[in-house]
């Protein structure tokens, strides 16, 4: 049964449907759901949608047409600010990441292979990417051995983050000496460790 | 207990259609003592307990709640309860408790009044009336609450999607210098090889300078030897730079070239051929 | 660090934040998230919100302030049509749930035992769970009586759901009738007496 509705109400209805539906709505879906009672032509619905698109041109959200239909979307240039509504806390770094970072900091410039030799386990590309994405390490050259592996070093950003002006300000190996590691390369004995 | 058969002027034996048993419809029925057994069970299900049921009886008979005609109400109530029990329905305990309370009120009302009692005893109905009234208030409040406009029924939340270029703001984990030191300690404990890579302050500054020189060499193919020294750093700085250049050369990371004797020395990233 | 932004962009930003956030946003939340970089006064944000409210007055969705903040919602008169977008009908709540909710709303903080006393019937755990799962009520403390029963109160979400800003906006409770028993103990006349 055809019901009567004003132009303004039609516009309000389509607009509200697009804002409250969980999925984008196609023109047909609009015709068959909220507009069901009004027997509107496709052309008419298109005119309504065009009007809404125009109304929102300068606003914070805009009408978008995607493959699955129409929906409202925030203006792209606002994304940077909107991100603050959903801060995501990433998980703590794994032991492997911290050890790799420590070796790069203390033994730079160093290749991934050298890090693997010292750690005794392989270092995943993921770990190197994590540290590079963070801006803490970078490749400063390549070692002229087969494969030309990258030489990693810490960055100025790394120093800034840890509040250091120079790398020498990192804690020295005093801590290790207390552990009983001497120049002779002796392994720390259990007792000394427990005293540390 | 009263016999349900012939003592109740307010009810008429009249079969009830089973069709009305759902929801409120049952409340609208005028006279209904006789209720088919199934319907009776459903009937009690439509009440929110004995207070609700009593309110129904009061409203049905248009009694004034504050002039509670306890005897009549009690009688009505008992008849339902008795019938339920005869039919072996499991009655919620609250209905039986209420029956006992009504019976007690009734018996107290029927006791001869002590003319000389100094203070009037509290009307035995008072507490029940208070409870009925209080319940009715909240029964109404529940109905009012249900009519308030609410989400999902009267309005829906307006939402827009985030633009396609949206990137979440990721808060990266914190790391303390101590974490690095602890990580290094773990490596030391584990790796025997690492004992040879003993780390000292001088060595660290040398290694940092090595990184710095390599970085410079990424920007310039050739680096004049002098460019590796910062005079402002003083003697120590010069030594560190010099050691770094020697170490880089030793590790075959750079090559040093000098075209003429006493001519300028240049640093260059080592290429495979030269190495 | 204070950044500069045009009036129009500010309005767009607040509007987009309110449309994209899943929950209502309070003025403070806006100040501390999307508006963080602009150091705006409360008054200024209020002016922006007032402007948005005005802009949407005749549209399909409108700005609403409820207990936990501002959000957009569809015009109530459109609900009949919008309901067609949802295959499931909006949930209806039983009288038991509504009476329990009403008691918690008007008598909070209240224990389950106290609710049972007034309703004259036991309150199932199922009911309490329904109300808590919906986020409408929560335990806010414990009554210092034997068993330390939980004290229930309504939440901001409850107010949001019913479109309220404060509890005082709930419908007024029906006034008690005056207790009219003056001639206590007087036996009602009637045939039944003889049979009693």
TrEMBL record, chains A, C:
Species assigned in the record: Alkalimonas delamerensis
Spans traversing the lipid bilayer: none
Taxonomic lineage: Bacteria, Pseudomonadati, Pseudomonadota, Gammaproteobacteria, Alkalimonas
Keyword Cell division applies: yes
Superkingdom assignment: Bacteria
Name of the protein: SMC-Scp complex subunit ScpB
Keyword terms, alphabetized: Cell cycle, Cell division, Chromosome partition, Cytoplasm
Keyword Cell division on entry: yes
Coiled coil: none
Name of the coding gene: scpB
Pfam families per record: SMC_ScpB (PF04079)
């Amino acid at each position: 049964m055809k019901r009567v509705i004003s132009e303004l109400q039609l516009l309000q209805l389509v607009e509200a449907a697009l804002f409250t539906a969980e999925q984008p709505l196609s023109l047909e879906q609009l015709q068959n759901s909220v507009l069901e009672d009004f027997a509107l032509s496709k052309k008419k619905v298109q005119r309504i949608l065009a009007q809404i698109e125009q109304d929102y041109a300068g606003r914070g959200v805009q009408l978008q047409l995607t493959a699955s239909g129409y929906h409202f979307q925030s203006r792209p240039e606002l994304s940077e600010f909107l991100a603050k509504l959903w801060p995501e806390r990433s998980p703590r770094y794994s032991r492997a990441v911290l050890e790799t970072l420590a070796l790069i900091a203390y033994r730079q410039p160093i290749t991934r292979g050298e890090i693997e030799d010292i750690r005794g386990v392989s270092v995943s590309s993921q770990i190197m990417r994590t540290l590079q994405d963070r801006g803490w390490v970078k490749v400063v050259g390549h070692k002229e051995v087969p494969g030309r592996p990258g030489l990693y070093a810490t960055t100025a950003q790394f120093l800034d983050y840890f509040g250091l002006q120079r790398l020498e300000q990192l804690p020295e190996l005093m801590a290790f000496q207390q552990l009983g590691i001497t120049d002779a390369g002796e392994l720390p004995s259990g007792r000394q460790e427990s005293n540390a | 207990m009263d016999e349900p058969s012939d003592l109740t002027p307010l009810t008429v034996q009249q079969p009830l259609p089973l069709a009305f048993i759902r929801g409120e419809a049952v409340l609208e029925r005028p006279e209904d003592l006789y209720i088919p057994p199934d319907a009776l069970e459903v009937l009690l299900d439509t009440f929110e307990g004995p207070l609700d049921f009593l309110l129904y009886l009061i409203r049905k008979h248009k009694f004034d709640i504050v002039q509670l005609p306890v005897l009549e109400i009690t009688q009505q109530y008992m008849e339902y309860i008795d019938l339920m029990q005869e039919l072996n329905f499991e009655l919620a305990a609250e209905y039986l408790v209420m029956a006992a309370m009504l019976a007690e009120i009734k018996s107290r009302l029927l006791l001869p009044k002590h003319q000389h009692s100094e203070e009037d005893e509290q009307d035995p109905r008072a507490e029940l009336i208070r409870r009925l009234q209080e319940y009715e208030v909240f029964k109404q409040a529940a109905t009012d609450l249900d009519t308030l406009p609410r989400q999902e029924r009267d309005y829906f939340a307006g939402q827009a999607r985030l633009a396609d270029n949206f990137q979440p703001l990721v808060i990266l984990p914190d790391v303390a210098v101590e974490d690095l030191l602890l990580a290094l300690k773990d490596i030391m404990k584990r790796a025997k090889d690492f004992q040879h890579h003993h780390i000292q302050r001088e060595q660290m500054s040398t290694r940092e300078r090595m990184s710095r020189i390599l970085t410079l060499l990424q920007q310039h193919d050739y680096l004049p030897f002098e460019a590796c020294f910062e005079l402002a750093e003083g003697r120590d700085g010069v030594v560190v730079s010099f050691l770094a250049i020697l170490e880089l050369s030793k590790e075959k990371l750079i090559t040093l070239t000098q075209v003429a004797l006493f001519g300028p020395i240049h640093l260059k990233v080592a290429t495979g051929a030269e190495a």
